[in-house]
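Standup notes
- DV: blocked on the single-chain target, sequence here:
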Amino acid sequence: MNIVYCVKPHLRTYDAVVVGSGPNGLGAAIRLALEGLDVKVLEASDTVGGGMRTKELISPGYKHDVCSAIHPMAASSPFLKKLPLDKYGLEWIKPEYAAAHPLDQSDAAILSHDLYETAFLLEEDEETYKNLVEPIVDKWDGLTQDFLGPLSIPKHPISLASFGMKGLLPASLLRRKFKTEKGQALFAGMVAHSILPLNSIATSAIGLVFYGAAHTGGWPLPNGGSQSIADAMAGYFLSLGGEIETNHRVASLNDIPEARAVLFDLTPKQVLRIADDVLPPSYKNKLSSFKYGSGVFKIDYILNSPVPWKDKNCLKAGTVHLGGNFEEIAESEKMISEGEHSDNPFVLVAQQSLFDPSRTPDDKHTLWAYCHVPSGSTRDMTEIIENQIERFAPGFRDVIDSKTTMNTVDFEHYNENYIGGDINGGRQDITQLFSRPVSLIDPYNIPAKGLYFCSSSTPPGGGVHGMCGFYAANSVLKNEFGRDKSDWTFRL
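- DV (later): unblocked, structure below
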């Protein structure tokens, strides 16, 4: 769809200005506009989207998702699910399988959208999988309202307590429930999305959430690319009377129109730069100690034909996890966290064009692949990533037409939020799970008049779900406009 943006600043006062147009910036803007507020979004780039952009990175007509590609959390988001984004061009495509995890000595482990099929395919681990995941799926809607937000009194305490007993365990401990290599490897691939060592506290929660998402909203991809999510959110926001100004980089508070509230879809480093003069010294010290996570190295491909996976079931999956068994993945993630590169890294592969023909102008295919690397790494991981793909798809290099790469410096240049290549807005370990960037009580509220965080540097953290923006907007509504809007009955 075509979106008309505001191209010149309006010299007037707004109820709220949002700096940054990622999923959380747009989410916050929509939430506030739904309450009838006069809201403007400022974006430094020439298009909205943040981590949701799709670009022709290699050749005209070939659409590549620059950052996010597959969207289990968007499909599961209690906020985004309430928005009529389908009326603004968003169409979800659900591959037959959510994910596949090929192994060296057996067929691939499969995460089907059907819980019982997934359990059945895990053979000896069938009952284990059902016992772990079925209670989560049964209480999914309530659980997502509780764990996709800041620390608070849970609305569904019994379900959350049951989830927490498993989720707070390190993945290296919970994996012992699985008897088979296949069951353990599939779990490792889910948990490794956290970009944390697999023996870290609460890493099990990441894996269980991705399992639950697969069996509820699925692991879909947006027709036309992730930009479609951004464009739909922007289109809906504009229909509510909002304004968007692109090509407007904010370097200081002077670059922001006068407003009762300003929300930053930025990480602590940028907010420290922009608002340095008005922040209390103690708060600045806390922001300065905010921990960023490891980075990523990514390759985008144009292929002459699909990836020649040894296990053809991988061609039915939107996402393929590469890295072998649990021990191998755990070792590679441990090395990354210690500042070392792995020669056998965990590699995430997305093969969107198998399910969305609009991604290419012909019968060729696009492929998206990345691995984790130490923060700020400039090492070229191309050969290492391709070795991992070749390991499970012999002849892969023969089908490559062309490719382009992004290291951590490229990612930070593309989006200033990706400090050192960190795509999650900060390390998401237990110390920064709820108290990101600083406070446990109201992590969105900055102790300076009218200033707020709304980025993935706040709970619930990274991912395309808009929940950080939703809760930040609720904080603004309560603190600046006297409206206690913490429930889910907001007007649509």
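- Follow-up: The two ends are 22 Å apart (CA to CA).
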